[in-house]
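Field notebook, page 295. I keep forgetting to write these up properly, so this time I am using the form the group agreed on. The chain and the ligand, NAP, are recorded exactly as supplied. Prediction of the bound pose follows.
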Amino acid sequence: MERIAYLGLGIMGSGMATNLLKAGYDVTVWNRNPESCKSLVEKGATQAQTPAQAVENAEAIMYCLANDKAVEEVVFGQDGILSNVRSGQIAIDMSTVHPDTSRQEAAAYAQKHVEFLDAPVFGSKNESAAGGLWIVVGGKQDVFEQVKPILEPLSETIHYLGDTGKGTSMKLIGNSIVATQIQALGEAMILATKAGLNPKDVLDVLHVVDFRSPIFDGIGKMLVNRDFTPSFALKHMLKDANLIARFAQDLNSPMPAAGLVRETIKAAVNQGWGEENASALIKALELDGGVTVES
Ligand code: NAP
């Protein structure tokens, strides 16, 4: 496989498309705002004007889009991917969406004799840029084996989890833990501040104890520096929290803590912090607690 179409050049997609170019693939890119194609074209990509045009000559079609609505528009819409696919191509959706969306995509592609994998990712801006993502995949195993070499330059590990929707299921399950960890860190840091502890001392302890976490380290450092520059936007974390709620409800699965965290995220987005990093959910807790965590 040599020719790849990559659609959606946001924080995550731009890093992945860059690494495909570095690995020597012939990459055609498309993004809703064409400005984002510029830096990829400078690195050797070809720019397409529409999703339909992007997939014209591709063997593999990859995309990482904001949400289910974006997938609906880019895949199923006018001049969308499905309007110009042909038998033998493989489509790989790397967005975080509901597993039902993955299944709808797979069914629509199957009608055109196109294979489909849901392959969302763990890791953020830095891991995407460094080719160090953790990819979780659903779909047919033989199709997965075919595209594995394309996923390797993007990732540290790749996990095949079963049929269509298993990748997106795993992604939502993982993100429920991420959100809960950020909420736990925020609550703890606010309590520590009120108790008169130095937040940096608290982070030093959290860095070594037996319940340490890279989330506590990374988000903790950004929090005390009051740095909310987005690597994963809070608005996307709310999207994920809403997806997790729907996903769990459909399966009658108890998620009381995730429900509480969703309310915190929603409150923070309603304060206007949706474009900031996901860690800005802690600002909603600070508002409630009447203190700011800083060094
Ligand atoms: P992002 O920087 O906000 O990029 C979103 C991408 O989706 C952009 O290319 C955007 O195009 C496109 N888009 C949004 N709405 C669209 C629409 N209606 N039609 C066509 N294109 C549309 O987001 P990101 O952080 O890269 O995240 C992308 C996906 O990966 C999301 O599902 C997110 O949950 C998931 N994810 C993110 C991270 C992370 O840490 N950032 C980690 C793992 C998974 P424009 O440039 O034109 O707006």
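OBSERVATIONS:
- The domain at 3-163 is CATH 3.40.50.720 (Rossmann fold).
- Residues 8-13, 31-33, 36, 64-67, 69-70, 73-74, 95-96, 121, 124-125, 231-233, 236, 240 surround NAP (CB under 6 Å).
FOLLOW-UP: compare against the apo run.
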